[in-house]
UniProtKB/TrEMBL annotation:
GN (gene name): lapB
SUPFAM superfamilies in the cross-refs: HCP-like
Main location: membrane
Species, as recorded: Kangiella geojedonensis
Cited HAMAP family: LPS_assembly_LapB
Placement of TPR repeats on the sequence: 181-214
Protein name: Lipopolysaccharide assembly protein B
GO molecular-function terms, A-Z: iron ion binding
Protein family: Belongs to the LapB family.
InterPro entries per the UniProt record, alphabetical: CellSynth/LPSAsmb/PSIAsmb, LapB, Rubredoxin_2, TPR-like_helical_dom_sf, TPR_rpt
Keyword annotations from UniProtKB, A to Z: Cell inner membrane, Cell membrane, Iron, Membrane, Metal-binding, Repeat, TPR repeat, Transmembrane, Transmembrane helix
Binding site for Fe cation: 357, 360, 371, 374
Taxonomic superkingdom: Bacteria
Gene3D superfamilies: Tetratricopeptide repeat domain (1.25.40.10)
Length: 389
């Protein structure tokens, strides 16, 4: 017998023991069933002959569905699902539901487990139907709402996700403003892609009403206004990020610069950058401001600005900008060394992640509004410090 088969047989022994126990109890009550006895022996023979699949089915059949064994069936189904044997779990739960003598409470428990089975194999239409049916059951309502919310997010059905999240918030009192705002942003992005700008802006407005601190909504609103050449409105939307979460400001900087450029307000852009730095913005804003000072004054003034900043807040990105400013004015003998240092810092920056999830620690170079690892909304944020902003 190979190692894995041995493990499988050992795992079935508790089930065999339980079947034997139930059979023995019936015998003590004077209800001995010869067929039950022969089937139990048959199950043991399957175990001994290294046929665990047949043994499982035999022992399950021996567990007559009644108030004493429903929990055992549900536990077995849960075990099968966790082991990846979802087909067997589905069959077991379907068998339970088909029993006419099952109480409504036990039937609903089996329905919920069957819904989890369907989720595990991606049969979301079937699981959605079951969980909707269970919304009328006070015992399973909240759990079913959670499962429905997960399904709608996985299938990107943002309208239904919004409705379920609102019902979940009302039912459980669990704050859902952040995910609901993201659902409206998802709808806005879809409408924008379809060319329905009015509907897109309407959904963004709903997102900001639900969660005034939604950086994503401000970015999206600013992008739409910029696309529509409503530059002042775009700037107004982007500026909101300073109060919402200034760490995300670098995401908007190129578009902010474009908006100010289109209204020919260079002094306004410079004033905005200075205001942002005073409010605690990171090195990306500093680099932008240094470019303006370099153009208006000279490299020395830009380098002085960067240097003063780095004394208080060391940054690889700031260091690279400082090296770039010094290369042009360095002696010929020093230029190769400075260029090498610049290349090294550039490689360090390019290899480092820019964002991290504050919930699970997931790191990435691209921004995600929902963490791909833990599925939490608004948990992925720009990294701060010497390797970030």
């Amino acid at each position: 017998m190979n190692q894995w088969l041995l493990y499988g047989v050992l795992a079935l022994l508790p089930l065999a023991a339980l079947s034997g126990f139930l059979m023995g109890r019936k015998h003590r009550k004077g209800k001995q069933d010869n067929r039950l006895s022969s089937d139990y022996i048959k199950g043991l023979n399957y175990l001994l002959n290294e046929q665990p699949d047949k043994a499982v089915d035999t022992f399950i059949d021996l567990l007559k569905v009644d108030t004493d064994t429903v929990e055992t069936h549900l536990a077995l189904g849960n075990l099968f699902r966790k082991r990846g044997e979802v087909d067997r779990s589905i069959r077991l739960h379907q068998n339970l539901i088909a029993r006419p003598q099952l109480s409504s409470r036990d039937r609903n428990s089996a329905l919920f487990q069957l819904g989890l089975d369907y989720n595990a194999v991606g049969m979301y239409d079937r699981s959605e139907k079951l969980f909707k049916e269970l919304l009328s059951d006070p015992v399973h309502k909240n759990e079913s709402l959670v499962q429905l919310l997960n399904i709608h997010q996985l299938t990107r059905d943002w309208d239904d996700a919004t409705k379920i999240a609102e019902e979940l918030q009302s039912s459980l009192g669990v704050e859902q403003s952040k995910p609901i705002a993201h659902f409206y942003c998802e709808l806005a992005a879809q409408k924008r892609q379809d060319g329905d700008i009015k509907a897109a802006l309407s959904n963004v407005k709903k997102a900001l009403t639900i969660n005034p601190d939604s950086v994503r909504a401000s970015l999206l609103q600013g992008d739409i206004h910029l696309q529509q050449k409503s530059y002042k409105q775009a700037i107004k939307s982007y500026q909101r990020i300073l109060q919402q979460d200034i760490a995300f400001l670098p995401e908007a900087l190129p578009n902010i610069a474009e908006a100010y450029s289109n209204i020919k307000d260079n002094s306004g852009y410079r004033s905005f950058l200075n205001k942002s730095l005073d409010a605690g913005a990171g090195v990306s804003v500093l680099v932008e401001l240094s470019k303006i000072i370099q153009a208006e004054k000279d490299d020395r003034a830009a380098a002085e600005l960067i240097g003063n900043f780095l004394k208080e807040r060391p940054s690889l990105k700031g260091l690279q900008r400082l090296i770039t400013l010094h290369i042009e004015h360095a002696q010929d003998s020093a230029k190769p060394s400075l260029q090498l240092l610049d290349d090294i810092v550039e490689k360090l920056i390019s290899k480092k992640p820019r964002y991290a999830c504050h919930n699970c620690g997931f790191e990435t170079k691209a921004i995600y509004w929902q963490c791909p690892s833990c599925k939490e909304w608004s948990s992925v944020k720009p990294i701060k410090g010497i390797e970030g902003e």
